[in-house]
């Protein structure tokens, strides 16, 4: 794998006008005929050869304008097909035929088989594993697809666009033809064939067109697709209402498959989903599963405009579609559920995943300038930080102007392959604002650190706020420029009311948004009648780290009086973190751990505040995770001490609040039949949070065992099982519950994933042997990405004490696993390996052992480009 540089981008020499594909499907020998009509681009070199991409391909035949091309007229390898001497000015037709083996395709890129069906995944560079092709996103063409297959085994033959027709095709076979009128890049091509059940519905668009909606799942699982269908219809309506975007084909299809490298894929008119993000019913899906299904169905649907109608010029522009589409799905979930609770969940996720990436060896800009393996750039930085950057544009410009910019973007770039610059220019043109400094968010990696301090001057009735920003060095970027940071803020008085300053100097303030543009600002608020408490970065308006030494009393004040609910949660977190870091230090030195009564008070106050929705209270009571504490500590991390300290704090809060938690546990039982809606889910969340605290206060498995026995839905059942397994791993109640769960759900692989994940995250050194034993279970399958992620991935990502055990055995285990997975599925191996991205922050003994494991991977022969790229960057 060589390095690809953004600076080397050039348009193709040839324009692709039309694509006609014919697939003769066979499990091991599928014949693919691609008829491609090209003409030379105006102004392009008239002698340049046509160079097509391939990946592990073998050419069966090659025609130019229907005549076989003699072997001396072209050169071919598995990776390229080069044809010189092509017409200078007239269009010509190339017919490429390849034979591929879907059954042998374990990478799950290109055409492969899963659960007896044929399925494709072409993003980013999978199409070149099907046929030789100009496989890059700026080559847009109109496709016709013919599929020929055995009729009995494959009653269903699907591709992009609208169905043209079908008929018998010789003995035992049939064919179907599809036409997609919208020009698209090859990464959006899809084909699915096989025997599946279907759930059908319709949607009438804003202009009155009826669209057929179809969700295909394994036979018998149709009832479990009802929620996904509902989410799809709500997504289609929302995109019309909020972004003015109408669907543009007669049919929209979703297919659920059980082997898939990521969550889902937005192929034009034919989305392919990991079945984990389609199938749900109360008995098998948790509230989190329902929320994920809603968000991912929406995300893929929203790509129809942000990604498909307007696509990316090159893969460096990935955030153009991904960051924007995540922003759109976040807004959708906020409108469907509780905005503040969704925002808290988003920020927790951003801090847990993106902040560590941005602070470690894999840090890269939202819009990178080089890559070795594009699959490794489907990162939380491109997705989630990309979404935050889009959100900041909306914050800076205001909703109205943001909407104007979006409308301009859709109007100006529809049908094009665009760049981040094109996108930003639309907002500059819509607002008249210069966004050049703001654009640094796309180009500078690293989480900015803002240091704040405030002082009140009663004599002059002024409040002065000093702010300094610093963007840390990241790989390849030593020095950074100051960024344009939109900081939303509030000054809250004793009685909870908000200051409306008579004047503000030292920085631009629009509404409650303060614009930091210099390295340092001294901002003075005039007309402040008494000492205010400052609430900074409301709603997480900027994805930054904030150093602001606020007293526990001030934080508690914000936690009680802020009008912005997110800021209230943030204040509780800021109150808890110093307690938890101190607890870790104390635990490491064998000292007793104590919890600040101010924290306990604030938490119990929030817990019992009936004006707050239950989902919010559950979030407020969920302390920062062990990973959050590790991040706060910075380096020299000892996961055992962090765990012990956090457990001690939890126990003290639980003991102090035992009555509150017992009352909540009784009060929060949702009434009536099960509903996955946000309000009922919120009650379950608060009830289960109370149950967790009670397990600390009471220190017996009794209550969790009773909850396990009484549960009538997967949220409550898996929560109770988690408490039993994590808190009382040796208790007979736990052994029994784990066995019951296994027995009850052994035929449902997605539920078994929960059983694997819960056991993989039991704290402590014994986890590794448990994981190894689970690998030998007949319910585990090393070839299925969901199973591997649930067991090996969850262990490495989410079990700090088990994975980072002091003897390094967790790291050595992961190194072996990565090498094994890499042989089948490099993308999956590379992704799981990123679990070690923060290895340098461990205490020295563990860090050395982690480095050894990484070196073992690096030295192995036959590494994929995917794993090599990650391991080398991690060791650099
Ligand atoms: N755009 C999709 C990305 C994706 C993908 C990328 C690489 C390899 C496999 C993949 N499957 C899906 C998903 C999305 O962001 O919507
Ligand atoms: Zn996406």
From TrEMBL:
<feature type="domain" description="Peptidase M1 membrane alanine aminopeptidase">
    <location>
        <begin position="227"/>
        <end position="438"/>
    </location>
</feature>
<dbReference type="InterPro" id="IPR038438">
    <property type="entry name" value="PepN_Ig-like_sf"/>
</dbReference>
<keyword id="KW-0645">Protease</keyword>
<comment type="similarity">
    <text>Belongs to the peptidase M1 family.</text>
</comment>
<dbReference type="GO" id="GO:0006508">
    <property type="term" value="P:proteolysis"/>
</dbReference>
<dbReference type="InterPro" id="IPR014782">
    <property type="entry name" value="Peptidase_M1_dom"/>
</dbReference>
<keyword id="KW-0862">Zinc</keyword>
<dbReference type="InterPro" id="IPR027268">
    <property type="entry name" value="Peptidase_M4/M1_CTD_sf"/>
</dbReference>
<dbReference type="Pfam" id="PF01433">
    <property type="entry name" value="Peptidase_M1"/>
</dbReference>
<dbReference type="InterPro" id="IPR045357">
    <property type="entry name" value="Aminopeptidase_N-like_N"/>
</dbReference>
<dbReference type="GO" id="GO:0008237">
    <property type="term" value="F:metallopeptidase activity"/>
</dbReference>
<feature type="domain" description="Aminopeptidase N-like N-terminal">
    <location>
        <begin position="21"/>
        <end position="188"/>
    </location>
</feature>
<dbReference type="GO" id="GO:0008270">
    <property type="term" value="F:zinc ion binding"/>
</dbReference>
<dbReference type="GO" id="GO:0016285">
    <property type="term" value="F:alanyl aminopeptidase activity"/>
</dbReference>
<protein>
    <recommendedName>
        <fullName>Aminopeptidase N</fullName>
        <ecNumber>3.4.11.2</ecNumber>
    </recommendedName>
</protein>
<dbReference type="InterPro" id="IPR035414">
    <property type="entry name" value="Peptidase_M1_pepN_Ig-like"/>
</dbReference>
<dbReference type="Pfam" id="PF11940">
    <property type="entry name" value="DUF3458"/>
</dbReference>
<dbReference type="InterPro" id="IPR042097">
    <property type="entry name" value="Aminopeptidase_N-like_N_sf"/>
</dbReference>
<keyword id="KW-0482">Metalloprotease</keyword>
<feature type="domain" description="Peptidase M1 alanyl aminopeptidase C-terminal">
    <location>
        <begin position="553"/>
        <end position="876"/>
    </location>
</feature>
<dbReference type="InterPro" id="IPR024601">
    <property type="entry name" value="Peptidase_M1_pepN_C"/>
</dbReference>
<dbReference type="Pfam" id="PF17900">
    <property type="entry name" value="Peptidase_M1_N"/>
</dbReference>
<keyword id="KW-0378">Hydrolase</keyword>
<dbReference type="InterPro" id="IPR037144">
    <property type="entry name" value="Peptidase_M1_pepN_C_sf"/>
</dbReference>
<dbReference type="Pfam" id="PF17432">
    <property type="entry name" value="DUF3458_C"/>
</dbReference>
<feature type="domain" description="Peptidase M1 alanyl aminopeptidase Ig-like fold">
    <location>
        <begin position="446"/>
        <end position="548"/>
    </location>
</feature>
<dbReference type="InterPro" id="IPR001930">
    <property type="entry name" value="Peptidase_M1"/>
</dbReference>
<dbReference type="InterPro" id="IPR012779">
    <property type="entry name" value="Peptidase_M1_pepN"/>
</dbReference>
<keyword id="KW-0479">Metal-binding</keyword>
<keyword id="KW-0031">Aminopeptidase</keyword>
